Amino acid sequence: MSPIRLALVGLGKIARDQHLPAIAATEGIELVAVASRNASLDGVAHFATLTELLASGEAIDAVALCTPPQGRHAFAAQALAAGKHVLLEKPPGATVSELGPLVSAAQASERTLFATWHSRFAPAVEPARAFLAEVAPRAVRVTWKEDVRVWHPGQRWIWEPGGLGVFDPAINALSILTTILPRPVFVTGGDLSFPSNCAAPIAATVAFADADGLKVEADLDFLQTGPQSWDIEVDTDRGTLLLAKGGAELSLDGQVLSAQPEAEYRNIYKRFVELVETGGSDVDLAPLQLVADAFLLGRRLEVAPFHD
Ligand code: NAP
């Protein structure tokens, strides 16, 4: 099979940091075009917008949408209507309900729609899932604290409606949680701290439960300087399981069970190639649904304004 000819839409931080090297390292896919208003790549066909790219007749099979979540639905709908396979950065959209029509459009046009959750491809996530399938969890603590100024420098969209604020990184924790726990969890309450000049929260505590009464507490912060915390701790009969470093490292009572080099985006593109070759799609909305429910049920608190 000839390689999938891919166009990257939105050449920003994550496209440069992760997508470009992962595409280059993945067999069966090649970058042939970029659609980005303010950025281009040497030696790759450039278009300011997806509309211009699709109108140009440039031969592409697929698009990877690395734009902010607001507006991604329109790009995905446009690409599917043009007969292209679509890879969505996380979160897959700005709302849960906008994804249904995309799934239907992908089915109708027999194209692949892949809603990626990069943290699910972290190396210790599968070992954690396997461990928790054997040993019942008793309580779960999620600590997801990072420095927005490091990871999202100057990104205004993250503070706008649909930008998710601290839930932009925290949805990665939820993508892991919804993979490793044996039963689905649902939101039972929370406090969301909104800077007075922002439409999205900068910190939050959220409580979850499952049907058997398992309690999950999440402590989320976007102003963490120094060491960053991307940890999920699970109390079990066999000890405390710690999935640390965003899913890269697994330990039980301090003893390391799994620590391997990360290859999240390479595994994303490997999976995309498989999905396209087999005619499949992969769209799981559980993490986005939990964020939406936190916004529905969480108490809204106003805190000091945020300035980059
Ligand atoms: P970013 O640096 O702002 O890049 C997004 C790019 O999309 C921009 O450079 C811009 O390029 C284009 N764009 C199109 N419409 C836009 C609009 N209305 N507002 C702003 N930019 C627009 O953002 P990012 O950090 O790469 O994040 C993009 C997506 O990747 C988000 O969904 C995010 O959650 C996800 N992600 C980010 C990280 C991270 O560490 N930053 C990690 C994993 C996933 P042009 O101006 O050239 O059109």
From TrEMBL:
Protein name, per record: Gfo/Idh/MocA family oxidoreductase
Native organism: Ancylobacter polymorphus
One term of GO molecular function: nucleotide binding
Short name of one Pfam family: GFO_IDH_MocA
Domain Gfo/Idh/MocA-like oxidoreductase N-terminal: 4-114
PANTHER family: BCDNA.GH03377, DEHYDROGENASE
Lineage: Bacteria, Pseudomonadati, Pseudomonadota, Alphaproteobacteria, Hyphomicrobiales
InterPro entries assigned: Gfo/Idh/MocA-like_OxRdtase_N, Gfo/Idh/MocA_oxidrdct_glycsds, NAD(P)-bd_dom_sf
Signal sequence, renumbered to the chain: none
